[in-house]
Automatic annotation (TrEMBL):
Name recorded for this polypeptide: Mannonate dehydratase
Organism of origin: Clostridium saccharoperbutylacetonicum N1-4(HMT)
UniProt GO molecular function: ferrous iron binding; manganese ion binding; mannonate dehydratase activity
Alphabetized NCBIfam families for the sequence: PRK03906.1 (NF003027), uxuA (TIGR00695)
EC number: 4.2.1.8
Role played: Catalyzes the dehydration of D-mannonate.
Keywords in alphabetical order: Iron, Lyase, Manganese
UniProt pathway annotation: Carbohydrate metabolism; pentose and glucuronate interconversion
Catalytic activity: D-mannonate = 2-dehydro-3-deoxy-D-gluconate + H2O
Cofactors that this protein relies on: Fe(2+); Mn(2+)
Highest taxon of source: Bacteria
Length: 369
């Protein structure tokens, strides 16, 4: 692995490391062996999928996960995600206990040399879509979002309304254990507004930063997806101003961002290359994908190629390159193509095409700039 890294850092400029998200052998239809064959991919981002937010991760399990990935010739380039217990997000009296557990997990990851942790601070739900398999003219399917449709959904029935199109796979953040107590969860957040959420995030970050600094673990918050409030719940990681507030409110080199182009790009007012430049030095992880705007509050996901969607992927990669970003990058949600049956957004084929395309842009950037 060390040789690989020396190779990555060789040449005119240090370059970013291409990775793929992997959901573990129990849940993922994509294997580590397949991932290893995608040109340029050297690592995966993964997690312990059977742990619940708030639990301490067993050291043995972390070691096993690492060993399994390394046996396939890859490395664990980061964790996506160590999820945050709702008590921390709402600032409940028992939050310190869950923060202490989080710190223990970070220490164990740090001891194992894992140094990027992606997390989110979205209330109740992780990312949200209104359709998990919208058919496009070429027969591929994509995830899509339509605020008008979402406004008609009763969140308490959400899981059953989406499940039929999820190819039998569970979406991250939509675990049945959580959905079973969804009323309680909404109740917990009833007095939490954007300011409280920001304060609770600050409290959490201040508590964990000494540990992160000790082990050089870069915390990379994921933007909210879509980047506006959903189901009346507050959402704060939505725009340049709020991301800058996050990185400045707790001043540590370990406090940073997962720059997710698709999540931030859901809001047409977000200028992604501009956000990237503003966050120079604070981006620890990049999720790079394209989406196609249809109207405000309505978008389809797309192939990674610029001309297939509304984002300029060349300008995005150029901005990352120009700020000297040398962290981990991954393609993000792909279309479902060639008859693949996989977790929506996370099949092998279109994400592999995404990697090839992003690698092509990077090669041309490296040779030109
Ligand atoms: C969606 C993903 C998110 C992300 C979490 C990070 O495809 O990018 O589920 O992993 O928000 O905690």
């Amino acid at each position: 692995m060390r040789l690989l890294h020396l190779w990555l850092k060789k040449g005119k400029k240090i370059i970013m490391e291409m990775t793929l998200r992997w959901f573990g052998k129990e849940a993922d239809s994509v294997t580590l062996e397949q991932i290893r064959q995608i040109p340029g991919v050297t690592g995966v981002v993964t997690t312990l999928y059977d742990t619940m937010p708030g639990e301490v991760w067993p050291l043995e399990r972390i070691k096993e996960m690492k060993a399994e990935v390394e046996a396939a010739g890859l490395r664990v380039a980061g964790i996506e995600s160590v999820n945050i217990h709702d008590s921390i997000k709402v600032g409940a009296p028992d939050r310190d206990k869950y923060i202490a557990n989080y710190i223990t997990t970070l220490e164990r990851l740090g001891q194992e040399g894992i140094d990027v942790v992606c997390y989110n601070f979205m209330p109740v739900f992780d990312w949200t879509r209104s359709d998990l398999a919208k058919v496009r003219p070429d027969g591929s399917t994509v995830l899509s979002y339509d605020q008008e449709l979402v406004d008609k959904i009763n969140p308490e029935n959400l899981l059953s309304s989406m499940d039929s199109k999820a190819n039998g796979f569970m979406l991250p953040g939509w675990e049945p254990e959580r959905m079973a107590k969804i009323k309680e969860l909404f109740e917990l957040y009833k007095d939490v507004d954007n300011e409280k959420l920001f304060n609770n995030l600050k409290y959490f970050l201040e508590a964990i930063m000494p540990t992160c600094e000790k082990y050089n673990i870069k915390m990379a918050i994921h933007p909210d997806d879509p980047s506006w409030p959903v189901f009346g719940l507050p959402r704060i990681m939505t725009c340049k101003e709020n991301l800058l507030r996050l990185v400045t409110m707790v001043d540590s080199p370990c406090n940073g961002v997962t720059l997710c182009t698709g999540s931030l790009g859901s809001n047409m007012n977000n200028d992604i290359p501009d956000i990237i430049r503003a966050l120079k030095g604070k981006i620890h992880f990049a999720h790079v994908r394209n989406i196609k705007h249809i109207a405000p509050g309505k978008f389809d996901e797309a192939a990674h190629l610029s001309s297939d969607g509304s984002l300029d992927m060349y300008e995005i990669m150029k901005a990352l390159y120009e700020i000297g970003f040398k962290g981990i990058v991954r393609p993000d949600h792909g279309r479902m193509i060639w008859g693949e049956v996989a977790m929506p957004g996370y099949g092998l084929y279109d994400r592999a095409l995404g990697v090839a395309y992003l690698n092509g842009i990077l090669e041309s950037l490296r040779k030109q700039l």
